[in-house]
Specification:
Largest sheet: none
Oligomer: single chain
Order of helices and strands: HHHHHHH
Strand content: under 5%
Radius of gyration: 23 Å
Number of strands: 0
Distance between the termini: 68 Å
Structural class: mainly alpha
Number of helices: 7
Length: 159
């Protein structure tokens, strides 16, 4: 019987979803149907497991490593590629950039994280300092670097 099973598995090909993958896929689909959203890591253990599995599928998809059959199946789950979490982070980043532009327009100088005149200036100064660090380390996303350069020319030092 094992030989028959192994032969059938080989006939499906190496990209065919495993039984475990199919169970997690069905659980993610069912979760979406019941909750109207994708699972997140901030809730119960089972939801965290599904959120982690979805994250892994996204990483594989972005890297071109998710087989076409799995992509086809995953596309049946609404918004599985885009993460609410990442969208939220990007929206917060854009909001902080808008605050930076408004501050620079009003104060006519960059916000300071040290010797600041307000907590708002301090928060913007820390945020801008973080952008400097990420740029220097090559971790600042290209679209963010371009947005900063366009919105606040001269925002970074040239060291």
């Amino acid at each position: 019987m094992r030989a028959v099973h192994d032969a059938a598995r080989l006939a499906l090909g190496p990209d065919w979803p495993t039984t475990r993958w199919q169970h997690l896929y069905k659980a993610a689909q069912e979760f979406y149907k019941l909750n109207g959203r994708l699972p997140t890591v901030s809730d119960g253990e089972n939801e965290q497991k599904l959120a982690t599995w979805l994250h892994t599928q996204r990483i594989m998809h972005r890297g071109g490593d998710l087989p076409a059959i799995k992509v086809t199946l995953m596309d049946m789950i609404p918004d599985w590629v885009g993460t609410t979490w990442q969208t939220t982070l990007d929206d917060r980043w854009r909001q902080r950039l808008d605050e930076l532009v408004a501050f620079v327009d009003e104060a006519e100088h960059m916000p300071r994280w040290s010797r600041h005149s307000s907590e708002h200036e301090h928060a913007l100064g820390v945020w801008l300092h973080t952008q400097h660090q990420w740029r220097a380390e090559g971790r600042l996303l290209e679209w963010r670097l371009a947005a900063l350069d366009e919105a606040v020319p001269g925002w970074h030092s040239f060291t």
